[in-house]
Amino acid sequence: MNGIELGPALLALSTRADAALARALPEATQAPTELHRAMRYAVLGGGKRLRPLLVHATGATFGAAPERLDAAAVAVEIIHAYSLVHDDLPAMDDDALRRGRPTCHIVFGEAMAILAGDALQALAFDMLANDPALREDPATLLDMLRTLAAACGSHGMAGGQALDLAAVGQRLSAAELERMHTYKTGALIRASVRLGALAAGCRAPATLDALETYGHAIGLAFQIRDDLLDIQAGTAQLGKTAGKDAAANKPTYPAILGVDASRAELAALIRTALAAIAPLGDAAALLQELARFVAERPS
Amino acid sequence: MNGIELGPALLALSTRADAALARALPEATQAPTELHRAMRYAVLGGGKRLRPLLVHATGATFGAAPERLDAAAVAVEIIHAYSLVHDDLPAMDDDALRRGRPTCHIVFGEAMAILAGDALQALAFDMLANDPALREDPATLLDMLRTLAAACGSHGMAGGQALDLAAVGQRLSAAELERMHTYKTGALIRASVRLGALAAGCRAPATLDALETYGHAIGLAFQIRDDLLDIQAGTAQLGKTAGKDAAANKPTYPAILGVDASRAELAALIRTALAAIAPLGDAAALLQELARFVAERPS
């Protein structure tokens, strides 16, 4: 499956996010060393850094300096990484391969993987609460912490995981599948966009609503692309076990809508996302690029 | 093993904390229902509510109204409950009994127990960040969120769990054992005291240091009492599997120091705790009572 890669501006921001993550995580030489090794392994193993890019692209739309966005970018990626560690556990998806490497519990054991995920979640709140760039603006920082906490909880990502668990082996409708993904991956993606806007000082309700629409649409689009890649690509290309969803009897867009209708839905979502941010004009160029990337990413 | 019970003022605050927790947790009728059922089961199953009591007792020492302390009290207990759910998992301590009832994963399955713990951690930050009583004081609330996040992370509770994992089957020195407990249970206990002080507007460094000493001492005292109860009480009395630590080859104070020296150390820690708060006089009566309770609690 072909696809497009990130352009130079987003690629530079992705590198920036990698560097910020490496600084944010405790050194593996610090005690407890094994826990810190597991945390670094889980976060620093590559990945597209989509969520940090959404923070930066949204913040840049409103003119925020990248320094003002680093902590939020780090926080959302750390949350994402923790969710993957727990998701891959034997009691959950039981996956041995992630981003082309053995999963965290394969390398460090189940107990340490559980703890690494737990400590990462705390670290995300810690990093954001201690953001040096926003120290003088506690009200904004509090709003951002509320956004992050809501996105992680039982009405957000963790709730979506619970819906996902309940869906295994079930025949879901397209609406039920959408609801599950709206929580499971959508909540954190929408939060990433909102965090970028809040850090940049954007408080206009109409603009925040438009960004919510954008985030919702690309969150679902991301998942459809994921499902399409899962059935069409090989394991080496994906860096995770291909065909896993179907084998695990997990509901997917291609299984429920068919491949052609899934592609059409993906295209419609990207149009919705682009229309939502159209009023922001060229300032939102990076958000436009990210929407197209989500639709056509190669892996 | 005999012991003392809570006096009427602390008992009333314990009941208050129970009510606040029941309100804070999403209703089990709200979707995702199974996740919310598991979260409520994990938190509302009784327990001593030591951490909420520490928040309230410290806040009361500085004259704060209980309403100003409810959110922090809820947050620390939710964090404690999540840590127990993950600690009891098969990959961790593999315990089937807690507070006289089957553990969360026995009732809801491992995957749901992992998710319930994850969602509870997020909920604790959510509750604190949205504390209605401190909304007008974002700087204090931010300080409190920083305190909570640090207590939960790899340099706090999760770090202590990792040290605990590494200690199984090892011969620890008394100093290593103390270090492990200083993180594992101590970090959240110290944070509970500090949160009560911060919510009450106490910022005097000397007072916060004295409270840190108090929290550190009763945290360790709590653990020694736990270890003594574990070898001396029966399962029915404890509400969790008795003799479990020794069977699991876990290092304990009685195993390392002997029973008599453990009792002496416990008494010394309580003296240290009481001496630290002596300058606060009668205003700290509830903290004094809690120190004695920790030393002599019956289960």
- Derived from helix and strand composition plus strand pairing, the structural class of chain A reads mainly alpha
Q: Please name the CATH architecture of chain A.
A: Orthogonal Bundle
Give the tally of structural domains of chain A: 1
Q: In angstroms, what separates the terminal alpha carbons of chain A?
A: 8 Å
Residues in β-strands, percent of chain A: under 5%
Instruction: State the strand order across the main sheet of chain A.
Output: 1-2
What's the Cα radius of gyration of chain A? 18 Å
Description:
Chain A is an all-alpha fold. In chain A, 69% of the residues lie in helices and 1% in strands. The first copy, chain A, has a two-stranded antiparallel sheet with strand order 1-2. In chain A, α1 crosses α3 (50-61), α4 (70-87) runs antiparallel to α10 (186-199) and α7 runs antiparallel to α10 (186-199). At the A-B interface, α2, α6, α7 and α8 of A face α2, α4, α6, α7 and α8 of B.
Salient structural properties:
globular, mainly alpha, 16 helices, Farnesyl Diphosphate Synthase, 299 residues, homodimer, two-stranded antiparallel ribbon, 69% helix
Task: Give the topology.
Two copies of one chain form a homodimer.
Chain A: H1 8-24, H2 33-43, H3 50-61, H4 70-87, E1 97-98, E2 101-102, H5 104-108, H6 110-129, H7 138-152, H8 157-167, H9 174-184, H10 186-199, H11 205-232, H12 235-238, H13 244-247, H14 253-257, H15 259-277, H16 285-296
Antiparallel strand pairs in A: 1-2
Helix pairs in contact in A: 1-3, 1-4, 2-6, 3-4, 3-10, 3-16, 4-6, 4-10, 7-10, 8-9, 10-11, 11-15, 11-16, 15-16
